[in-house]
Amino acid sequence: MFCDEALDAVERIAAGDLIAEGRIADHLGSCPNCSATLESARRVERLLRQRDVPSVSPQFTSNTLGRVRRARWRNDQWLDAGFNLAIAAIVVAILATVWMVVNRSGLASVSNDAMALFASGLLTFAGRIAPSLPIYAGAAALVATALGIWWWAEREA
């Protein structure tokens, strides 16, 4: 057995949580450094047991839990901010890539023509539908009124 294995168990042995048996007991009996460390740890344990235990304030648990919650919340906020920043960077990179592909491939000129065609079609459609807008508005108002009355009647029932 090596000293580091025995030294890992010294504090538990001094506190009485572990009984020195087998290889650990043999090593502590044969190694003067490890046995001196064990004696020092036992002295510290005796001194600690002789001291009075300080009383805990009644708010200790609630204060400690509050601090833990706040710390966890702050950590979660940083994590959320980092995640959102990463997602935003990915979206910007994707949009930049699409923009570069559209510009490099010549689709931008085609898309300008398509937008002009769409705009002219939209203007033509708006010109055709404009005379009927008062009828559509009246029909929408009639439907909204009917739904309002229906809601009012069901609410009272």
Quick gist of this model?
With 157 residues, the chain is mainly alpha-helical. It has helices spanning 3-15, 22-30, 32-50, 60-105, 107-129, 133-156. The protein has a domain at 3-50.
Question: Could you please describe the fold and organization of this structure?
Answer:
The chain is built from six helices and no strands. With 157 residues, the chain is mostly helical. Helices cover 85% and strands 0% of the residues. It has a domain of 48 residues. The model has no long low-confidence stretch (mean pLDDT 88). The radius of gyration is 39 Å and the shape is elongated.
Q: Key terms for this structure?
A:
0% strand; 157 residues; mainly alpha; elongated; 6 helices
How would you sum up the global shape? elongated
* Oligomeric category: single chain
Strand content: under 5%
Unreliable stretches, pLDDT < 50, 5 or more residues?
none
Q: Would you list the SSEs in sequence order as H and E? A: HHHHHH
- Radius of gyration (Å): 39 Å
The biggest sheet amounts to: none
Question: First CA to last CA: what distance?
Answer: 85 Å
Structural class: mainly alpha
Count of helix runs: 6
Q: What's the total number of strands?
A: 0
- Overall mean confidence score, pLDDT: 88
Instruction: State the helicity in percent bands.
Output: over 70%
Summarize the topology.
Layout: H1 3-15, H2 22-30, H3 32-50, H4 60-105, H5 107-129, H6 133-156
